[in-house]
Write a structure and sequence with these properties.
Membrane topology: Multi-pass membrane protein
CATH topology of the largest domain: Tetracycline Repressor, domain 2
Pfam family, one: MgtE_N
Number of domains: 3
CATH architecture of the largest domain: Orthogonal Bundle
Number of strands: 6
Radius of gyration: 31 Å
Shape: elongated
CATH superfamily of the largest domain: SLC41 divalent cation transporters, integral membrane domain
Strand content: 5-15%
GO cellular component, one term: plasma membrane
Number of helices: 24
Distance between the termini: 67 Å
Mean pLDDT: 84
Family: Belongs to the SLC41A transporter family.
Helix content: 55-70%
Structural class: mainly alpha
Function: Acts as a magnesium transporter.
Low-confidence stretches: 1-5
């Protein structure tokens, strides 16, 4: 089904473009009302601002607000500055409440003050309340477009209230039952209201055991609840257990995507920004600023590797073959550490483990890395035996002896790298930080340094050289 929808999207865009080029405005507007909102919004995004305004004028107010909600924030702001305040306020009032609040926060204080007098009382109060919550919390991402009924109503009275309140048809997932102080008592489904006797009381059918989010709860935690309990939406309650909003599963998907992108950027040593745009829309200098801090810092720390190599310069002069397998040692350690860190950070972010499990996690990674080290050691020995059999060695040493030493050193490197890769995110989490900041380049740099120490220490001790 998803594949068919993906195939349909280019066809929709082509159809809209053909109607536009042929000047069939009436047919085009009719298609705006029938096609998915996102397809229409993407089509308009590519058009000149004046043309977008003309298209919007031909739609009814509800459709204007629906399509406007799917515009990029840049286009929304451009339309705000282009339209007169009264016209914009009418569209603004039809937008989805959470997106409306996001747009309102993008306006300057002066622009907010200019707009407020043109808004209906309900919209004005709604946008001020939603804008007051930090964007990283449930309150900052919730919408107030939901249906409520009173727990002491009959099914018939409840349906009548829903029709009167007329929430967005996209938001009637669950019907939330409250008392007359808006304290949430439970929920029922629309199916419950329709299928039962109209005289049945709501509180007789009420599901009193429900999952909810607190208004100041972190948005990532809210998204995890929606995912864990497979919810279509989750109610948001304040400290008095009053229903103040809901967070939909669509919003949860956006949150998870943003958090994954942020974690991936951190893990790859890229400093995320609050105002990040798409890759091509972001300037080269902005990309440079995000990457340069980690890169320069780690390059400076990498000087330690050079100092270690310089310290063992005499060993390398006698055993050139050791230098030949240093890149393999570094690459193997870096890959092992990054693998372990990725697995642990993912498990932490999904709530599968926590920092209290650190001993079990490290022990498990030790077992895994031991098995990996055996495979790598065998491969290293065979590689040296087949590719370096002709290498010159100091008197008294055999190629088999050297191969065993290098293989043993790299196997220890695999184990230590896995412990470092798994341990560092846990340490950061234990200290109250974000495990994703233990960036992959940072782990690779640390593993390189420890790997060189292991490599040369094993070589000098086992070969009896200094």
């Amino acid at each position: 089904m998803e594949e068919n929808e993906n195939d349909q999207e280019p066809e929709n865009q082509d159809l809209l473009q053909d109607l536009s080029e042929q000047g069939k405005t009436a047919e085009l507007v009719e298609m705006f009302e029938e096609l998915p909102t996102m397809d229409v919004a993407e089509f308009m995004e590519e058009k000149p601002l004046e043309e977008v305004i003309e298209y919007l004028k031909k739609l009814d107010l509800e459709d204007q607000g629906r399509i406007f909600s799917d515009f990029s924030i840049d286009l929304q702001l451009k339309l705000f500055h282009e339209l007169d305040r009264r016209t914009f306020a009418k569209i603004f009032g039809q937008m989805f409440s959470d997106i409306r609040a996001d747009l309102y926060q993008e306006l300057t204080k002066e622009e907010q003050i200019e707009l407020l007098p043109y808004l209906d009382k309900k919209v004005r109060e709604d946008v001020i309340i939603l804008s007051a919550y930090p964007p990283e919390t449930a309150g900052g991402i919730m919408t107030t477009d939901f249906a409520t009924i009173f727990a002491d109503m009959t099914m018939a009275e409840a349906l009548a209230k829903i029709r009167k309140d007329a929430p967005s048809k996209d938001m009637i997932y669950y019907i939330y039952a409250v008392d007359h102080s808006m304290v949430m008592k439970g929920l029922v489904t629309l199916k419950d209201l329709v299928m039962h006797d109209p005289k049945t009381r709501v509180n007789e059918m009420l599901n009193e055991f429900f999952v909810y989010a607190e208004v100041n709860e972190d948005r990532e935690s809210v998204a995890q609840k929606i995912e864990k309990y497979d919810l279509v939406a989750i109610p948001v309650l304040n400290s008095l257990n009053q229903l103040v909003g809901i967070v939909s599963h669509e919003e949860a998907i956006d949150i998870i995507r943003k958090e994954e992108t942020e974690d991936m950027e951190k893990f790859m040593g890229i400093m995320p920004s609050e105002d990040d745009e798409e890759y091509m829309a972001t300037s080269s200098f902005h990309h440079f600023k995000k990457r340069v801090v980690w890169l320069v810092s780690l390059a400076a720390i990498g000087i330690i590797s050079g100092m270690i190599i310089n310290e063992y310069q005499g060993v390398l002069e006698h055993f050139i073959i050791l230098a030949m397998y240093m890149p393999m040692m570094a690459a193997t350690g870096g890959n092992t550490g990054s693998q372990a860190a990725t697995v642990v950070i993912r498990a932490l972010s999904l709530g599968e483990i926590n920092d209290k499990d650190w001993l079990r996690i490290v022990f498990k990674e030790m077992k895994i890395s031991f098995m990996l080290s055996v495979c790598v050691a065998v491969l290293t020995y065979l590689k040296i035996a087949f590719l370096s059999f002709h290498a010159m060695l100091p008197p008294g040493f055999t190629m088999s002896q050297i191969a065993i030493v290098i293989s043993f050193a790299i196997s220890i490197q695999v184990i230590s790298s896995a412990i470092i890769g798994a341990g560092l995110p846990l340490v950061v989490r234990r200290m109250g930080g974000d495990p994703a900041v233990v960036a992959s380049p940072a782990i690779t740099t640390i593993v390189d340094i420890t790997g060189l120490l292991i490599y040369f220490t094993v070589a000098t001790l086992t070969l009896g050289i200094s």
